[in-house]
Design a protein that fits this description.
By secondary structure, this protein is mostly beta strands. 0% of the residues lie in helices and 47% in strands. The strands form five sheets. Strands 2, 3, 4, 8 and 9 form a five-stranded antiparallel β-sheet that branches. A four-stranded antiparallel β-sheet has the order 10-11-15-13, with no helix packed on it. Strands 14-12-16-17 form a four-stranded antiparallel β-sheet, with no helix packed on it.
Length: 198
C-alpha cells in the first residue's frame, strides 16, 4: 500500500550556457513523454536571458505525473522497497530557441535511469535519405540513435549517437553516404539493422 509511504517524485534542473560575449534571449520549450502509456504533455514555453560567458539555471521542478493507465505495473513502482510515482518513466525533451530567429540553438533529452528498469518502446523511426544527409523523425522517443555503413571510413557524419523525440525532427549531414546501405542501432535495439529509407 503506497499510501503509507512518502512517494519519491522525479525532479529535474535545466541550465543554459552562453559561451559568447553577449547576452542571448531564448525560449525554453519542454515536452514530456511517458515511455509506458504514450502520454505526451507540453509545458508552457518560457522566455529567459542567458547571460554572457556563463551558465544560468533556468528551472528546477518536479516532473509532471501522467494519469493512471492500464499499463501501470505496481511492482515496477518500487525501488528498494520505496514507492515511486509514474514520473520515473518520463522522458523530458528540452529545446532552447533563439527569440530573434526562431532557430533551435540547443537540444537535450533527459531519460529515466537506470535503463534496466524499463524496456524502451519501438520508436517508429522514419528516415529520409538524401544524397549527403538524413532527415530523421520518430513516433516515440529514441536514445543513442547511431547510423553506420559497411564502408564507415568513407562517410563523414555531422553528428551521431543522437536522441530524438516526437515533434522535433532532426537532420544529420552524411557526406559520402551516396547509395551505401544504411544501418541503425539504439537503446533497446543494439544490433545494427538495415534502415528502410524513402
Amino acid at each position: 500500500d503506497f499510501s503509507t509511504f512518502p512517494c519519491k517524485k522525479a525532479t529535474l534542473s535545466v541550465w543554459g550556457t552562453n559561451s559568447t560575449l553577449s547576452d542571448k534571449d531564448v525560449i525554453l520549450h519542454l515536452t514530456y513523454y511517458d515511455l509506458t502509456s504514450g502520454w505526451v504533455s507540453e509545458a508552457q514555453q518560457q522566455k529567459f536571458s542567458l547571460l554572457s560567458n556563463q551558465a544560468t539555471e533556468l528551472l528546477s521542478f518536479d516532473i509532471p505525473e501522467p494519469p493512471a493507465s492500464k499499463h501501470d505495473d505496481p511492482n515496477a513502482m518500487l525501488e528498494r522497497h520505496q514507492p515511486r510515482t509514474r514520473t520515473h518513466r518520463i522522458v523530458v525533451g528540452a529545446r532552447l530557441i533563439d527569440v530573434e530567429t526562431g532557430k533551435v540553438l540547443s537540444r537535450a533529452v533527459n531519460w529515466p535511469e537506470p535503463f534496466r528498469y524499463y524496456s524502451p518502446p519501438d520508436p517508429g523511426l522514419q528516415v529520409i535519405k538524401h544524397a549527403d544527409s538524413l532527415s530523421i523523425s520518430v513516433k516515440k522517443p529514441v536514445k543513442g540513435l547511431v547510423f553506420s555503413t559497411k564502408e564507415e571510413e568513407n562517410v563523414a557524419w555531422s553528428d551521431n549517437g543522437v536522441d530524438v523525440v516526437p515533434g522535433d525532427p532532426q537532420s544529420i549531414s552524411a557526406r559520402g553516404l551516396g547509395d551505401k546501405k544504411l544501418y541503425v542501432q539504439y537503446l533497446g535495439s543494439e544490433k545494427p539493422q538495415e534502415v528502410s529509407t524513402s
